[in-house]
# Entry
Amino acid sequence: MSVSSLFKMRILSFKKNKRAVFSLYLFIALLALSLLAPLWVNDRPLFIYKDNKAYFPIFKNYAEVEFGGDFFTPTDYNDPYVKNTLLKDAFIIHALIPYSYDTIIMDLDSPAPTPPSFKHFLGTDDQARDVLARLVYGYRVSLVFGILLTLFSVLIGVSLGAFQGYYGGLIDLVGQRLSEIWSAIPMLFLLIVISSAFNSNFWIILFLVLLFSWMGLSQVVRTEFLKARNMDYTKAARALGVNDLKIIFYHVLPNALVATITYVPFLMAASISTLVSLDFLGFGMPIGSASLGELVNQGKDNLTTPHLAIVAFVAISLLLSVLVFIGEGVRDAFNANMLK
# Structure
């Protein structure tokens, strides 16, 4: 069977799982909407036409003096003076949700947090910020974090697992002992120490979690290579004088990719869960950043306003369920018994 035929059979097998296909479409939609968040969830207008001049605040910060104000600082488009005086007669196109994740809403009808309404579809949190806007940007952070962490984990885990499994012997023994020692280091303790010494940010958290996230995949790839290194096609390649790197990447790795690919969606789900947990405990993103873990914390701190906890639970459950269902579909598609 050719590679293209096998690939087509796996695609057809994946499409038979309607839940996985729907989850994949939903994941793509969530990813696209979150990455394009500044275009539809933003407190800066998309376009302003005033005094025969066009402005694009979404792409450029304009000082208040450019609209006839007194200050040279960037314009606050939610300021009542700006809205009702400076831009009163201007033609303005606002974003679909005219709030960003850090916008403080000053004109609430009641003290924050407020329940869902036609103005704020998911209500506001205890800092008077729109929950829907924070949810969209929280998805954005979580998905980008999960994708990057998964990508780097695959690169590191596959490389180390392949090297360790292919050569075996002393290299495998030393690698296993080092992995066991490294996995014994408590990640949370390390994050607490780092957070107390530095101001944590997205890249520091990504780097720290990456130090530990590759180990599970590395063991999976190592096992596949330990089996494949003694296969006839590997021995034949060695006998023909093919160098080790070419054998690893052109002969053995394609056969080990089945286990790797089926592992990826679950690895991404675990990555997002890790970020949510760290944010909830206060060792994740900087204070004020939009994150799903911070939304969970809002629900815990405001039990009298259950909409915050409900939104956090539904949002996280939906995202993780989508990734798990995609993983199940991919696993079934690469299952040899499912292709018969």
